[in-house]
Design brief:
This protein is of the alpha+beta class. Helix content is about 45%, strand content about 20%. It has a seven-stranded mixed sheet with strand order 5-7-8-4-2-12-11.
Length: about 230
Amino acid sequence: MINLEEQIGLFKIIGKQLKNKVECIAIGGSAMMFYGVKNATKDVDIVFFKKDDLDAVKKILFNSGFDERRNIQGIFREDRTGKPVMMEGKETRFDLFLNEVIGFMIHKNTIERTREIHEFKNFIVKTASPEDILMMKACTERERDRDDAAELIKKFNINWNVIIDETSQQTKIGIAAFPILLYDFLEELKENYKIDVPKNILKELLGIAEKRLEELKKEDKLIRVTKYKYKK
């Protein structure tokens, strides 16, 4: 586990050693700690826009005692993977993503929705919006992600219109099954965590899924989806 102070300390080390400016987006628990919604996180999750930037940070982490973990699988489209580069240290792990988080594509709107900018010399870390964090967590099956999502909805005034608009976008640029994953995720939060999810939002998510899958069926482009998990 790592707390905010420790995360900032690692970001300062990275920023000090980077030769050029590198921008990224903090997601998951990393962003939630900046928002003050979470005290600690197991993984430091960050998304890069350029492979050279990811490789530069990966090299710094390696030189700082982190080792790369390779035995992972991810939710993916047939034509590309969304697997992170996992760098494991003694106390925590960095998950480094490149423009995609387990099937959720990072694009212009995602970047525009970021709320905070934290600068650590050459390391510029933006925080993903609560809406985007919530949607990314819908792609995984980890129990703690459901706990985090429930806390996000409780603490923030979630803009459900953003959720619907982005879901429509993700079915075209990410995985077609995304609205189903999100629907099931929100239904579970509503049932098990007693979270107030608007009924019309759940209905719209099903409508988006049905429409997109029908389009893909007509085009003979149905997509296989593999669940995100660790190999033992």
